[in-house]
Amino acid sequence: MTRARGRVSFGRLIFGAIALSVLVGALLVEAYANAEFHPDHTAKPGQRSKVPAEVIDGGPIIDTRTATVRSYRLPARTIALTFDDGPDPRWTPRVVEVLRRHHVNATFFVVGSQVIRHPEIVTALARAGDEIGVHTFTHPRLDRLPQWQRELEYSQTQLAIVHATGTKSALLRLPYTSSARAVDDTQWPLIREAGRLGYLSIMADTDSRDWSGPGVDAIIAGATPPGDSGAIVPMHDGGGDRAQTVAALDRFIPMMQRRGYTFTTVSQGLARTLAGHAVVVGAPTGAADKRRAFALATAVVLADWVTAAFRVLFLAAGVLTIARTVAMLLLAGRHARRRRAASWRWGPPVRLPVSVIVPAYNEKEGIEAAVRSLAGGDHPGGIEVVVVDDGSTDGTAALVEAMRLPNVRVVRIPNGGKPNALNVGVAMAQHDLIVMVDGDTVFEPDSIRHLVQPFADAFVGAVAGNVKVGNRRSIVARWQHIEYVIGFNLDRRLYDTLRCMPTIPGAIGAFRREALQDIGGISHETLAEDTDATMALCRVGWRVVYEERARAWTEAPATLRQLWLQRYRWSYGTMQAMWKHRRAMLDRGPSGRFGRVGLPLVGFFGIALPLLAPLIDIMFVYGLCFSSRMVTTVAWLVMFAVQVLTAVVAFRLDKERLRALWVLPLQQIAYRQLMYIVLLQSLGTALTGARLRWHKLHRSGSAAAAAPVLPVAPADARTAALRTG
């Protein structure tokens, strides 16, 4: 059995590692493919001591594929229109429409990442006789990249072109270049390198400056070659608003045709210059290139899908976070103000006797402090404590019996689980008001008295108390202290106001016997018997409320492993309870109200939001690495400020010291991520239908460390005050 569980855990670990790798890979591909760029522009040339005169004084077609550098111009009255930074689904078709209207073909220097996303546009261009050239994959400043990355930019764009057209291109236009006269010592090594890779570097003769939006007339003037000279004319079909380019093109082409100019592609123009020799055409591709092209296209498309889904989920996480914060601040504040009102009371003071059920399994570390705090409560109606020893092997029952407290009874039963122990305790209890507690929980002297006061309202069937972390010395326990105040107690104020309390904590809860009978007692069908019972009570029409004055101090897990085991059980048990009571969403009456209000709130705020919350951290890291660091940092700080505000409100309402919040930043960085993983693991367990066994946590008996517990009265005085029915 142990080895089987180990294999399951190992399998989940492998699955998690694969899922994380896929996620990280998709984000990296998306970051690479979505690199922001600015359209090409004319830059002032730098030093040109290393640039050959053949290049500076030569034509716009530069051939460095051999040791001899050559450059070429187009014949007179020949224009090769070129378009950079596409394909763009908005502007490229409009440019093509103008070209077709005037029966002109052009050369399109494409950005590889855009080709992957819009291959149909490039396919149509190639079929119509237009020429496709390489303009890199992400349009970077190549002089700032290492050689291997520059070559990757070219090869990935080639694969994108292969994916769209089935052929390769030998034409390359480097980003942020213009005419041959502007080539400087920074650009020249890049041109030489491109030649060694088999590319012709294509510059320009004119400069339309359409990237700057100077106006239609200025674009036409900048594109027009002097006299009757031939020219490679650069324009743009992507990278921004190209309305002026389209309008200028529709005037420029007929104007130059009337002057006797012929429009052609770069390769056709070069063929005319060379009198039909050494014509540059697209090279055919093999099966290996097509497979690589398909793999690249698939990776980018999947990355786009993943990122699009992330954006939607990120938006959902933001909406849920804001909704939860607003709801908690408004409704929890309303709850607190109502409870503080001088005229507010549950009703006549409740003085009925109370039976306290303590299920105990190997609780020797904390059972004495817990029982002593319960037996010594100041409830005027009298308190009976029933300790149900669930087959303990550490002498728990003997320790309680040795205390010789007159209002404490010990019931020994074979080990049958916590729900069974609670049901036995209820059956053995003498009174109709029943308090259920954990064996490691310490009550304050007035906790039971406050806890039962809501029963003055005949419609109240159960009461949730205020759970506090008693052992706050370790950083893990301090994180849980913050979580208890914010995530549990503040939530209970919200649920109480909406009358859809989903959970009475196992550490401190009170019930009417009649209410427990209505739901058939405590069920063993889930690992969250407290949540299961609470939902059942709401469904049968009992009101469940929160009494913040009834405080109990529990021992929180002090190690990450113990915390993991506890929260894994809690999360999985909550999912089990929600699934068990899912039909409430279709019911009428109180059950339907809880199903349509309580269950969605638990689902959204208790499961969906924690599952989506990691996206905030993932997008934060993604933004720092691949986007605007300032915007990303400000956005994260705003989210953190909202959480700090919520924490301050929660601590004020619970009358806690704010100095405990100094660990809140660390909680956001470390603790929260652990809870994400726990919830994901719980969801995986629930979806696979696996059964999760109960994990007994190690206790040190430190629950009373921060609890203001008063000494228990002597036995004879307690005996005189005790009421047994």
TrEMBL record:
UniProt keyword annotations, A-Z: Glycosyltransferase, Membrane, Transferase, Transmembrane, Transmembrane helix
CDD domains from the UniProt entry: CESA_like (cd06423)
PROSITE patterns associated with the record: NODB
Biological process per Gene Ontology, one example term: carbohydrate metabolic process
Key word Glycosyltransferase present: yes
InterPro entries reported in the protein's UniProt record: Glyco_hydro/deAcase_b/a-brl, NODB_dom, Nucleotide-diphossugar_trans
Name assigned to this protein: Bi-functional transferase/deacetylase
Protein family according to the UniProt entry: Belongs to the glycosyltransferase 2 family.
Alphabetical list of PANTHER family matching this protein: POLY-BETA-1,6-N-ACETYL-D-GLUCOSAMINE SYNTHASE (PTHR43630)
